From TrEMBL:
SMART domains: Calx_beta. Belongs to the glycosyl hydrolase 3 family. SUPFAM superfamilies: (Trans)glycosidases, Beta-D-glucan exohydrolase, C-terminal domain, CalX-like, Galactose-binding domain-like. This is beta-glucosidase. Residues 205-310 form the Calx-beta domain.
Amino acid sequence: MRRTALLASAALLTALLPLTAAGSASGADDPAPVPVDRFEGEVPFAKQPADGIFTWGGDSDDPPALQLTDRTDAPEGAKVLTGTYEISGYGGFTHDFAADQPAHDWSARKGIRFWWDGQNNGKKIAFEIKDGGANGEASELWTTSFTDDFTGWKQIEIPFADFIYRTDYQPVGGIDHVLGLTQMWGYAVTLPVGVKGQFAMDDVELYGKADQSLRASVTTDAGVYPVGEGGTATVKVTVATTGSAPIDDPVTVTYETAGGTAEPGKDYTPVSGTLTFPAGTASGAVQTIQVPTLKDGSAESAETIPLKLTVTGAKAPAETPQIVVDAHGLPYLNAKLPVKKRVADLLGRMSLQEKAGQMTQAERGAMSRPGDIADYDLGSLLSGGGSTPTPNTPAAWAKMVDGFQLRAQATRFQIPLIYGVDAVHGHNNLAGATVMPHNIGIGATRDPGLAEKAGAVTAAEVRATGIPWDFAPCLCVSRDERWGRSYESFGEDPALVQSMETVIQGLQGRANGKDLSRGDKVLATAKHFVGDGGTAYGSSTTGKYTVDQGVTTVTRQQLEAIHLAPFGTAVDRGIGTVMPSYSSLDIIGDGQGPVKMHARADMINGVLKDRMGFDGFVISDWNAIDQLPGDYPAHVRTSVNAGVDMMMVPYAYKDFTATLIDEVTAGRIGERRIDDAVSRILTQKFRLGLFEHPYADTSGAAAIGSAAHRAVARQAAAESQVLLKNSGGLLPLKKSEKVYVAGSNADDIGNQTGGWTLTWQGSSGNITKGTTVLQGMREAGGNVTYSKDASAPIDGYDVGVVVVGETPYAEGVGDVGNGHDLQLSAADKAAVDKVCAAMKCAVLIVSGRPQLIGDRLDGIDALVASWLPGTEGEGVADVLYGARPFTGQLPVTWPRSQEQLPINVGDTSYDPQFPYGWGLTTLTKVPDGGVASLKALERAAAVAERAGSASAGRDIVTKARLLVQQKAGSALTAAASAPFADADHLLLTGKYAAAVAKLTQAYRAVA
C-alpha cells in the first residue's frame, strides 16, 4: 500500500515594488498591481537560499523542463516562462524568495494573478503560496487550483480568500495555520499527472485592495458538537483576520437552530439571536452560543440540530455547525452484550447507503471537506506513506484522528471510523518514533520472541497516537531479490515467515481478540494475499516496474506450500484483516491464466474465508480495484463479489459508494454479500472498543521513542547483523584499535532506515531521530576517524570499517531494472577498494537485499549483511565491538551474480555466494570434532524431536551448523550449500535430526 508524498515547497521574488504604489489597474479604488515575477530574466533558475526558480518531482523523470522563451504574444514584456512535462508521480516548479532577505508583506492586497497559456486539456493545476516560517522551504503551504479548459492566454485571478491550508502535505511543523499574508515566501505550481504536456506562464503579480469581508473570517471551534440527551452544547464563535489586525468594521453573526433530524420542542429548545463583534475587536475574539437539548425518555439513534449562521462584515464559516444528540438506549450500544448480538442489532438498522459507507476507506488528504465523513457515512480513513499532520508529532496525530472521529459522530448511528496506517517497521510515518529493522532484518534474527516485542512496541506507539489499525505485517515469501519490496519479507522460506508471525501477537495480543481494546494494541493486517513475493521478473504491467505487481505462476502444490502457508498461520493467530496483492496469480492447469488477486473469489472467498476460516475483514490495496478489467462498475462488482470487504479508494470514495449502491440496487451484488462485509467490519470495530472509546488514548504517548522502546529496536538491530566472513577473527573490534570508517551509509540515518520512513519512498539524510552506525561506534568507545569517501589520509590505522549499500526505495520504484541494480555504487566500490587495500577491513552492507560483492570478496577480511537496521545504530556497534555476539542468519540466499536470480533454498541447482541460513558467530565457542561429533548431535536431535523439546533441538542444530561453518570458511561449494540451506528449513519445521543429517552431508562436501 502506498501513497506518494506530494508538493515540495513554494516561494517568491525579493525585489517587489512598494505595496503602496499609486495608480489604478482594474478599478478606480484599486492600487497599481505589484510585480512578483515578470520572467524577463530578472530571477535566475536557482534554489534556496538564493532567490530563484527551481523544479521538483517524485523521481528523476517528473520535474518539468523550464526555460525563458521569447514570445511575440507575451502578455507582458518579451519573454515568458515555458516548460514541458510528462509526470507519473508528482512534479512542478517553485519560485522561492531569497532566504537571507526579509519575507514579503502581501496583506494589503486582494489576491495574486498571472497569465496562463491554455492548452484546453481539462486538467486541474494546483497553485500554492507560502506563508510564515523561516524561509520558502520552511513555511506553511496554502493551495487552490484552476482548470486548464481554455485555449490561449488567460489571466487567472485568485483572491487570497480562496486559498486553503494543505492538509495532505506540509514541509515542516505547524506554524499557526492562519494565512497571515505578512510573511510571504513565494509560490509553486503543480502540473497535471499522467499526460504529456507543455505550458507557458507570464506576469505573476499582486492585485486589488484587501477588504474586510475577505480579510476577516468567522469560524466555530468545531463542526460537530455531540451532546448527551438533556445536555447543553456550547458553540464558540471566533472572528479572526489575516495579518491578525483588529477588525475595522463591525462583524455580526445572526444564528438560529433550523432543520436537521431533531424535533424542536421535543429534542431541543430552539435558539436564535445575534452576536456582534464591534469595530476594533482584536483578531481571535470569541463569543458563545448555547443550545440546550431535552430528554424524551425513548431509545433513539443520533439526531442533528444544524446551527445556521449568517455573517456580515466577514467571511462566513465554510460549513454549518451541527449539534448532535447522541444515540442512546439501543442494544448495539450496550457493551455488556456479546459482539455478535451488537453487530446483528446495528446491521439490522442500517440503510444501504450506510452499509456502503462502512465498506469505504478514504485518504485523510481527501478530506478537504471533513463533512464528507458524515455525508457519505465513511467507515475508514488512512494515512498513506508520508501523509502526516502538521506538525508531525504524537499530539498532532491524536488531534487529527480525533477531529475525524468527531465527524463520524454526526452520523445516525455514530459508528466510529477505523483509522489505518502503514506502520511496517515501527510507527514509521511519525517523526521521532522508534524505527525497527525492516522485516528482512527481523527474519535474520531467527528470534520469534524478539519479533513479538518489536510488534508490541509498534502497536503501543501507533495506538498512542489514536490509530487502532496497522497495515502490517507483510507475510510475503520473497523469491526474487530483484523485487523492490523484498525487504518487507521475513525471508524466502515460508517456514521462516511463519516462525516470525509472533509479530501478530505483539500487535494484536491474544488470538481471540480479547486484547484489541487495550490502549497498546492495534488491529493487524496480513498482506499481500497471495503470492506477491513470487512475481516473475518482467511480468509487471505497472509503468516502469519490472517485478512488483507482476504475475506469480505456480502449481497448486507450490501455491499451498510456499505462499498460502503463512496466511494459514496468520488466521490461526487471529489476524484481524487481510489485504490482497496488486499482483496476478496464474495457477498452472486451472485454465484461468493470470487473474488479479482482487478478482480471485476462489482465493479470497474460497480459500481464505471458507477453508481457512478467516473471520476478519479483507481490505483492498491502494486504488487496486482500478487495475481490474472492465469499467468502474465492473471493478466494484468484481472485487466485492470476490470477497473484498472494504475498498481503499483514497480519493474516489464518492464514486465508489455511489457505484456500489447502484450495483446492489441493480442486483449485480447481493445484499447478503454486503451484510457479510459490513458485519465483518463492525465486528472488528466492536472488538477494538471504538464504540466506547472512539477518541485517542494518549496515556502511552510518553513512551513513543522512549529508551525502553529503543532498547528493543537496538536489540533487533544487533541480532539482525549477519556475519558472512570473518578472516582471522577480525571481528569483534577492540576499543584500543584505531579504526578508519568510510562509506556512504556509515553516517546516514535515512539510508539506514530505508523506504517507508516518514515518506513512502524514504529519503537519505538526517530525517529522523536516531543513531547512525558511525555514532554508535563512537558511543561504544571506539577510536574512530570518519571519511565518507575515504579521501582523508589513510595511514596509521589498525582496521577499516566501510559501510556501503543502497539508498531508500519502496515497492516497484525499487525494482531492479527500474533504475536499480544489485551493484554497489561507484563511490562505494572506490571506498571499499581504497580502504581494504591499505589495511585489514570489515565491510558492512546496509541494504534491503543482497548486494553483489563476490569480485571484491577476496580483498575483504570481514563482511556483514546489516540489512536496514532502523534508527538504533548502537545495535550494529554492539556486535562490532563485542558487547553482543553476531548471531544473525541469512533470511534469503546471497547470490554470486544477478543472472542466478531467482535462487532459493530447495532449488535443484543451488550454488550461491552464501547459502540461506548462513551466519558466522562471535563470542561463542564452536564445537570440536568432525563427522563423529555430527553423528552424536544427530542422535541427540532425534531425542529432542521425540520429546518435543524445541529449545534443545534448536541448540543442537546450531552447534552442528557452527561446526560446518568453521570448516567451510566462506568458500562453500554447491555440493555443500544445498544441504546446508535445506538444514535451516528443516530446523524451522521441527525436523531436528534431519537438519543435522543435512549438515553432516554439507560437512562431508566441504573441500
